[in-house]
Design goal:
The structure is a single chain. The chain is an all-beta fold. About 0% of the residues lie in helices and about 35% in strands. The protein is built from no helices and 17 strands. The strands form 6 sheets. It has a 4-stranded antiparallel sheet, with no helix packed on it. Strands 12-13-15-16 form a 4-stranded antiparallel sheet, with no helix packed on it. A hairpin with a 5-residue loop joins β9 and β10. The termini are far apart. The relative contact order is 0.12.
């Protein structure tokens, strides 16, 4: 009778192949020369990788019997979780729940209205336009909340508006010429 020594599930032969043992009397006898056992290496897991919004992991290359960690990327918060690689070639574990972090307040000059950016979180965008007393020259500026916690974008062009309302008047007042050409500061 012949007995074949091969690699267990989740492992693959990394040398010449299986090793044959023969039944001689009441005991198995291996080869008289060469490897007594096949060289087996763990197979990489190819499915079941952690996923989800903001999830990062170090599971690439995880092999049978190995473990890896899933965590939240920069700009997200949540607890890391462990995954293990089974002999079936599948990673098992639960991906972390990653919550986007809120960006720091956008601080631009007084010419800009930034209220649409309040409370934005990683990956969200907002528009910045002009504050009262300023007119928008082209289109609003678009800002994105980056993983760093800061906004990235360019402000719009805001032009000061002329002051035309509530100029003091009356028979006993003399309004100078310089009041008719004033603009928002």
């Amino acid at each position: 009778e012949v007995c074949v020594l091969a690699c267990a599930d989740g492992y693959e032969i990394s040398d010449a192949g299986p090793v044959l043992y023969t039944c001689s009397g009441s005991a198995y006898a291996g080869p008289s020369s060469g490897a007594q056992f096949p060289a087996c290496t763990p197979k990489n897991c190819t499915s079941g990788a952690p996923n989800g919004r903001g999830v990062a992991h170090d599971c690439a290359g995880a092999a049978t019997g190995g473990t890896c960690t899933a965590s939240c990327s920069n700009g997200y918060t949540g607890n890391a979780t462990a995954f293990s690689c089974a002999a079936t070639g599948e990673l098992s574990g639960t991906s972390p729940t990653c919550v986007p972090s809120e960006c720091r307040p956008l601080s631009l000059g007084e010419a800009y209205r930034t209220t649409a950016c309040e409370g934005k979180t990683t990956g969200q965008t907002c528009f910045v336009d002009c504050a009262d007393g300023w007119s928008l020259a082209k289109k609003p500026g678009t800002y994105a909340c980056a993983a760093s916690g800061d906004f990235a974008g360019s402000p719009p062009t805001c032009l000061p508006q002329p002051c035309t309302e509530a100029i003091p008047s009356g028979a006993d007042l003399a309004v100078g010429e310089d009041c008719s050409s004033l603009r928002t500061l």
